[in-house]
Write a structure and sequence with these properties.
heterodimer, A: 350 residues, mainly alpha, 3-stranded antiparallel sheet, 12 helices, 10% strand, globular, B: 164 residues, 2 helices
Chain lengths: 350, 164
């Protein structure tokens, strides 16, 4: 049993040295001394959930983490400190307003006796720069870099053939315009192009970065309900703020009149169900992909043998190929449905 | 259920980032890129239509050239035909006039010959007459050299003449 544990920690090290550090970082954490006695299945589950969730610290390599700023908005004022201070299990940080400790992934207020004060904890709003927020910043930076480069290439020569990155990006832009925007929104498409393109490339870059297991990827940003929910709410607002009289008439005065009691609630539910479907679809697809890939890797630890590794790796490579397809597909579907919903709201007649 | 509970911090940062992204990209990336793409599409389209027009123009010119060539050929044939006709005509005319001239000359020559012949005949007649007279004179002279014969003849003649 002891030698088995040593072997396992060796495997952990090998895996860490392999390029999988970000993916594997949760495993390293799960393999710390105090819980090495746990069932490997439980540990794999914890590790997977930790990866697809969010965290206040940024794993760089193995157990090494970088502290991230914790920003708390409390009823007594703003509070900023490093996550290093509450990283260790059970450590309490004495802030200006309250004392804080990390419980699971949540920052809780503790009272003088060291017990969690749930009532006060509810008043604390956590705006921390978490691991996912860092990856969000990185993906935005990448998008800005890429598109500034591409747009300057266009400014240099308007009538030149595209080259380099430009020739990869241009078909995507033309695709969004010709196959997503114009068929669904008609001649009014131009106003919504910036939104659609930003959504498409934002989802695409984050999906793709999610597949890359090491820096700057290895996060599960588009598989986070907060991110997909925010995008869905943006679509909800855009659709309903641009809805014309036909759109509202369709909702509030269905034909024939005696359908009013049934149709009006149904239509109102449908206003919200469309963005909710968008939110769930992207979240579930990306999270599921990450869970499957990580579960396949976890098989090595669950079986406790290296011989399963080739099988796991083969399946993970296969899954990653599918994930690349899904990354494009989900970005496309989200954009397409957004365009469709906007198109339905701005359509001139039925 | 941690997984499906949205975290307010991430919602906030996503909203901020997305807003910044849509603003900056909209202004500095999408607008110029879309404008450039549609600009290029337009220029490609116009270039294509121009090429098409040039091709049509070319075809038109070729057919026009062919038409012209055909016309020129026809004209040449016509001219050649006319020339040949004219040549034939000229040759025929020349032949006719030569024939007429020849005939005229022959006629004139014949008249001349006739004239000359008449003159010669007259001349011959004169000479024959002169010669005959001379011969007759000489014969008569010979015959009447003898005086008696002259007397005999006078006597004869006097016998014939009867006084009335």
């Amino acid at each position: 049993m002891v030698s088995g544990t040593i072997l396992k920690s060796k495997i952990f090290n090998i895996l860490l040295i392999c390029a999988f550090f970000s993916l594997a970082a949760p495993f390293a954490k799960a393999a710390t001394a105090e819980d090495s006695t746990k069932d490997p299945k439980e540990r794999a589950k914890e590790a997977i959930l930790e990866h697809i969730g969010d965290s206040h610290s940024w794993p760089v390599l193995g157990k090494t983490t970088i502290g991230l700023p914790v920003i708390l908005y409390t009823d007594k004022g703003l509070e900023v400190f490093s996550s290093k201070k509450i990283e260790a299990e059970g450590s309490v940080y004495q802030g200006a307003n309250y004392s804080y400790k990390l419980e699971g992934n949540k920052i809780k207020v503790v009272d003088a006796a060291g017990k969690v004060d749930e009532v006060t904890s509810k008043k604390v709003w956590d705006f921390s720069i978490t691991r996912n927020v860092i990856s969000l910043f990185m993906s935005c930076a990448i998008l800005l870099l890429v598109f500034f480069g591409v747009s300057s290439a266009y400014r240099k020569g308007i009538n030149k053939a595209p080259k380099g990155l430009q020739s990869f990006i241009e078909p995507l832009i033309v695709f969004v315009r010709d196959d997503v925007a114009i068929p669904n929104m008609g001649y009014k498409y131009a106003r919504f192009m910036p939104l659609l393109l930003t959504i498409f490339f934002f989802i695409l870059i984050n999906n793709l970065l999610g597949i890359v297991p090491f820096f700057p990827g290895g996060y599960n940003l588009t598989g986070n309900i907060a991110v997909t929910g925010t995008l869905a709410v943006i679509i909800l607002f855009v659709v309903n703020l641009n809805g014309n009289k036909y759109y509202w008439k369709h909702i509030f005065s269905p034909n024939p009149w005696w359908l009013f009691p049934i149709m009006i609630p149904v239509e109102i539910v449908s206003i919200f169900s469309k963005p909710i479907a968008l939110m769930i679809r992207l979240f579930a697809n990306m999270t599921a992909g990450h869970i499957v890939a990580l579960s396949l890797i976890s098989l090595i630890f669950i079986f406790g043998t290296l011989w399963i590794a080739p099988v796991s790796v083969a399946f993970v490579v296969f899954m990653d190929c599918i994930e690349v397809l899904i990354a494009f597909l989900q970005a496309y579907i989200f954009t397409l449905l957004s365009a469709l919903f906007i198109g339905m709201a701005i359509m001139e007649h039925h | 259920m941690d997984l499906v509970t949205p975290n307010i911090g991430l919602v906030f940062w996503t909203t901020v980032c997305f807003a910044i992204l849509i603003f900056i990209l909209g202004k500095y990336a999408w607008k110029p890129i879309l404008a450039a793409i549609s600009e290029r599409e337009k220029s490609i389209e116009s270039a294509l239509s121009m090429a098409e027009a040039a091709k049509e123009e070319m075809a038109r010119l070729t057919s026009e050239n062919e038409e012209l060539l055909k016309q020129a050929r026809a004209e040449r044939d016509l001219i050649l035909k006319e020339a040949r006709k004219m040549k034939d005509q000229i040759v025929a005319e020349a032949k006719d006039s030569a024939q007429a001239e020849g005939a005229r000359m022959i006629e004139r020559a014949r008249i001349e010959i006739d004239n000359q012949k008449a003159i010669a005949m007259a001349d011959v007649k004169n000479q024959v007459a002169t010669l005959s007279l001379e011969i007759a004179e000489k014969v008569l002279r010979k015959q009447f050299e003898d005086q008696k014969k002259q007397d005999a003849l006078v006597a004869d003649l006097l016998k014939e003449v009867k006084l009335k």
